[in-house]
Amino acid sequence: MRKTIFAKGEFYHIYNRGTEKRTIFLDESDYTRFKESIVEFNVVDPIGSLFENSFRKKNQLGGSTSKTENEKLVNIVAYCLNPNHYHFILQQVADKGIEKFMQRLGTGYTMYFNNKNERSGALFQGKFKAVHIDSNIYLLHVSAYVNLNDLVHQLGGRTSKSSWDEYTKRSYKDGICEKKDVLGQFRTKEEYVTFAKNSIRGTMERRGLLDEPILLEE
Predict the structure, then answer these.
(1) pLDDT, average across residues 108-124
(2) Whole-Å CA distances, 81 to 13, 88, 167
(3) Which CATH class is domain 11-206?
(4) Euclidean distance between the first and the last CA atom of the chain, given in angstroms as a whole number
């Protein structure tokens, strides 16, 4: 039985990796598919597969959706997709929202990945892991950890996809994150960048990983 109890309105750090530490994102199309799944599966009413949902949308008059279909299970606060694992900060906004969202996301992406690569069986290492973010300062530091997780693992940004640009670019479009609970505590995005750099620097120093200054594009 899972130790973490998910409550509406609360924030959680969610993460998991590929079974046997295997790569779960092999190319750009895999990242794209997973990000599409994050958006499409985050609804109260089940949608079936992404293919079924896209077909349904095409056949809706004027592309309209009902109010219920637009109700979300969770708020995506931040994310990072690394080659063999992922991180989220999720806020639950519907009953059992996190469990439903993660079950749909994991099942849907596994079916896509297995079909694409002619394999079978589990893709992820058991149930996703969850940690309750029980304080505001913890939320701020976890946001830095997730947004800059590629630095923690020294992967290089081109091999990972995260919400960092959503948080820091002035003209970023097509974002999927609810950022106000984090960015609303800073006067500017530049102030958040400074905080995040200092936070991640502290994390890497504690792990003995920091040999040189952290450099990020502004």
Answers:
(1) 97
(2) 14, 9, 16
(3) alpha beta
(4) 44
